[in-house]
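I'm stuck. Protein, please.
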Amino acid sequence: MELGLHTFGDVDAAALDKGAEGARRIKDLLEEIELADQVGLDVFGLGEHHRPDYVVSSPAVVLAAAAARTKNIRLTSAVSVLSSDDPVRVFQQFSTLDLISNGRAEIMAGRGSFIESFPLFGYDLGDYDQLFAEKLDLLLAIQEQEIVTWSEGQLRPAINGRGVYPRPLQDPLPVWIAVGGTPQSVARAGAMGLPLAVAIIGGEYPRFAPFFNLYREAARRAGQDAAKLKTSINVHGFIADTTEAAADQFYGPQAEVMNRIGRERGWGPTSRAHFDQSRGPLGNLFVGEPELVAEKIIAAHKVFGMDRFLLQMAIGPMPHGQVMRGIELYGTKVAAIVRKEIGGVRKELTGSSDGAKPAA
């Protein structure tokens, strides 16, 4: 199983000098990705947002900077908001990233958890589902062939025999589908034979098991090769030297983010009691000392049988030093325990398990 991290690049939305605040966060973020590579983690993902509280609106650009400072770690969007972008440009950007990184790029495509990009780029929210379906179809056509002829859409103009360049080092360039729990999206990913990432940000995590069953059953019914299917869970959590320290350090920043988003969406405020319940054995938060988090990852693997686990530790105003310590513990202690129990991609701290070309 692959072990990794993802983040949205949170910044202080109230900062007077937004340029300086953005520069600070990008500097810290690149250090975090570099350390994740050094301690042997497998994947780092960046989400795309178009809000004042996040610095990453163009994951491929930041990941390209990270590619120049890393050697082994896979670099993915988490997610690319495909509905409000153009599939040709998304493919070109990540194909370029693949060349810079020597074959370590991935696209994680999704609708996104916010809607700001739709009016920003001139799209109608009424076309929310159709935009994603059409653009995913085009992205996969570009993934499969150099010269593209495509006329399946009503909202995106057709392409007639045009080449899309550059081509990636990986063939094909991996494309994952990320979902927040919509059964129709899960079933479609399975039927199309695409890797699936499920975001788990609330409730008891085992309740998401039916989505994985649905995904695999849809793939089976569509005649997809089960051996080629991949799944991931993307969760919130934090690792520190002690469980008490992890909980105390993570609660404030995580609560700040959840309450801010909650006010926008009509959720009730969170509390320390709810937080502590959520970090229990079946809760959605993976928070604690290395041994505890490793045990919870292993337990989740028994439920889902996933191929990848991505942890979001750098959330809200998490101090950079605490995030760096968490990454160090994740790579040197948590990963060792999980890989011993389950098996993993890395055989040693900074070397990959084999020289095989990464596959989708």
